Each structure stands twice: as structure tokens, then as C-alpha cells.
Amino acid sequence: MTQPLTNMQMRDVEALLHPYTDAVALRQTGPLVIDRGKGVRVWDDQGREYIEGMAGLWCCGLGFSDEELIEAAREQLGRLPYYHIFGGRSHEPAVELAEKIKELLPVPMARVFYQSSGSEANESQIKLQWYYNNAIGRPGKKKIISRIRAYHGVTIVSGSLTGLPANHQDFDLPVDRIRHTSSPHYWKDAKDGESEAEFVARLKADLEALIEREGPDTIAAMIAEPVMGAGGVIPPPKGYFEAIQPVLDAHDIALISDEVITGFGRTGNWFGAETLGMRPRAFSMAKQLTGGYAPLSAVAFDGDMAEAIEANSGRIGTFGHGFTYGGHPMGCAVGIKALEIYQRRDILSNVRRIAPKLHALLDRAAQHPLVGEARHCGLMGGLELAPPGRKGFRVGGKVGPRLSAELLKHGVILRPIGDTLAVCPPMIIGEDDLEALFAPMEAALDATMHWARAEGHL
Ligand code: PMP
């Protein structure tokens, strides 16, 4: 039986269209209205407490209501609440943050360009690739390779890079020039008896075949998340990037690392590219860049690109790309503070210390008959649900949300991605809170299994 909606819930469904929501079902249940947060916890408007196991949307690495981040925002708002960096203007927070980002990146990068979101960062990446290839006299080298199950955003081009059906269906995506190669999801996609090494060799061959089919001279770049996030938390099999990097290098195809989730410590290094052995020519960053406290994203690209792009802007008389809020002073001030905190409080060490604990908890949960596979890398993980002995349900996307709803009853917020339960706690989480996050898992899995059986999903 569903409860009658509260006044706030009724106002909500009359006023908002919610992202990633079944609007028809929401009219019955109403949204969960979150009112405040502190540390790794949030409270709803009825005063109920939850552990936030997803750091919001993979972004609140420092948890909620960090006083230093709040103060950095307040100070900047008091001094210069807005200025832009168009047409020869600048401000110190934009410069200082770009310098800090360049220092932290594992591969030397020449320039930083700002936007507000991860989608816009990837939109900029593709425009920069096209502009660069025109600038150096390669107008035919424009296609971009992405991967099935990738998540790179939802704008027209970033949504095209995303390799998930829900982001394409009825949106008339993907647009031209985007190609998707196979997904590095060993558990789901490996053939019977195929070893991890054989699987990697097959993915490499798939990529080579795609490049051959399209023509290497028509392909500008490949974009990849070091660990796939919103596609189901999928760390690549061992040796994956080591296998594909030479293929890209051989055809002068730039690798773009989408570090929107993995950037700034999430995998135990500053960037996922370090953890996964990638040598990117460009990086996309957002989310933990400001700990989620301000909408800000950045792309960084190498010296070759910088030289050609800047020279071309000289020929044309301008660089015709930029966002009103790209490099927003408050966002940059918060970003500077967030990076300083990651260093001063040694957040990376906490990630490295806590990650094995998270992995053990996920592996233990995987003993449950409803869990097909546990996946993890650093402080991110996923539990993929499946009927015993199978790789997926007949009707996908029903059982995962049910598990998430069961956990919510126990005061735990974890996000279903189809039938995978994603886990991505704030990077400041301690052992006790991590235990608390997993405490109701067994009971919630049992209840979900009971429900799934009754509904005919098993
Ligand atoms: N890239 C990756 C890897 C992401 O995880 C996301 C968001 N989850 C995006 C891009 C898009 O970011 P945004 O929602 O800020 O547009």
C-alpha cells in the first residue's frame, strides 16, 4: 500500500520533471525529499536519517556541510561573486585552480578549459578534437570512438558518446561521427570458457576491426572512463588499457580519459588513468573537483593541441567556444579549497586504507544467491544482481531498484543502475560508517529475493 503524498511531494510532482525517473510511478510514491546533510549522512524532510552511500551522485567526496568548503564559497561570494574569463578577462581563482589541476595530473597537460558540468566537459572535448584536426589540416579525422555501457553525459554529443539505450531511445541519438566499441565487462560479455586475457585480446581485435572498417584517418579520438561508472561500475579486465593504448597510438587516435567520477582520489590515486595504466592526451574532470559543492568542470589537454588550437584562434581572431559560468569564481574558489583539503587531510590515504574493507564487504555480499557479481576499484563498487547461475533477469531493471528501496527502509542510500547496486561513499568515510552502510545488506537481499520470487523474476 502506498502512503498518501505529503504536501511537498504533491507540489514536487506538479512542478518538476525529474531526471532519470519514471514520472508515472513517481506520482504514486512521491519523491524522497532531502533536507540537510552532515558528514556521510543526510536527513529527509520528515527528520529520518540516512547514510549516503553514493556521495550524492558520485561527487561529495568530502561529505556534506564541510565548513571549509562553505567558508571558501562565502568568502569568494563576498569578494567577487561573478566574473567571466571571455575576451581577455580573468580572475585569480580561475588561474590558481588551473595551475593546481595541471600539477596533479599524471601526464603533462598544457591548458585547462572550464565548463559547469561533466556533459559540457565532454562536449568541449569533442569540439576541441574537431577544431584541432581542422587547425592542423586533417579535416577528415573527426569520428570519436566510445564504448557500449559508457557514460559521458546527456547533451547531444556527450549523450551520443554515452553507450546506454535509455540515453538514446526516443532522443534520436547517437548523432553521426560517434562509434561504439565493445564494453570491457568480462563477467557479462565473456564467452563460455574465455579467459580474461582472451577476452582482452578479443576487445583489442574488435577495436582494431572498427578502426580498419571506418578508416584510421577518419578517427580523431577514443573516450573512456578508467572505471565505467553510471554504466554499472565496471573496472576493466587486467591489461585492458595496456592492450588498446598501442592500437590508438599506432593510428594517432587521441585517448581522452573521462575522470568525472574517478578524478581526485576515488580509485586511490589522484586520477583513474594512473590506477588503470592509461596515457591520455586529454582529461575531463567535474564532480569531486569541487566536492560537489559547486557546478564546475574542467578539461585539460596537451601541448600539441594547445599550440595548434591557440594558433588557430589567432588566425580566426577568436576561439569561438565558452560558457557564461565556465570558471565561475565561486566554483573555482571551492575547487581550490577541495584540492587543498584532499592534500592536507591526505584523503587518498583514507581511500587506500578503507578500499580493501569495502571490497571485502562487497565480496561477502556476493555470497548471497541473488548477487551474480561484486565489482570494485578504490572506493567504488557494484553488486550485480542475477538469478542464480544466470547473467541477468528476463526483465531487466526491476530487481535492482527493489533492493535499493529495501535498503532505504533501513536508512541506507545506494543507487540502482538497472540491476546493479552502485556503491560510492564519500571518500572521508570511516570503518564504522562503512560497516553501518552494509549492515542491512543481507536482510535487504533476502527481502528482495523473496519479492523477486513472488513476482516471477527468478
Ligand atoms: N562523465 C562521467 C564519467 C560521468 O559519470 C558523468 C555523470 N555521472 C558525466 C560525464 C556527466 O556529468 P554531468 O551529469 O555533470 O553532466
Description:
- Helix content is 43%, strand content 15%.
- The strands form three sheets. The protein has a seven-stranded mixed β-sheet with strand order 4-10-9-8-7-5-6, with helices on both faces. It has a four-stranded mixed β-sheet with strand order 1-2-3-13.
- It has 18 helices and 15 strands.
- The structure holds 4'-deoxy-4'-aminopyridoxal-5'-phosphate.
- 4'-deoxy-4'-aminopyridoxal-5'-phosphate (PMP) binds next to helix 6.
Secondary structure elements and their pairing?
Blueprint: H1 7-15, H2 23-29, E1 34-38, E2 41-44, E3 49-52, H3 55-58, H4 67-79, H5 92-104, E4 111-115, H6 118-135, E5 143-147, H7 156-161, H8 165-168, E6 178-181, H9 186-189, H10 196-214, E7 219-224, H11 240-250, E8 254-258, H12 272-276, E9 282-285, E10 297-301, H13 303-316, H14 329-344, H15 347-365, E11 371-377, E12 380-385, H16 399-409, E13 412-413, E14 415-417, E15 420-423, H17 431-438, H18 441-454
Parallel strand pairs: 3-13, 5-6, 5-7, 7-8, 8-9
Antiparallel strand pairs: 1-2, 2-3, 4-10, 9-10, 11-12, 12-15, 14-15
Helix pairs in contact: 4-14, 5-14, 6-13, 10-11, 15-17, 16-18
Residues 57, 117-119, 122, 151-153, 225, 229-230, 258, 260-261, 286 line the site of 4'-deoxy-4'-aminopyridoxal-5'-phosphate.
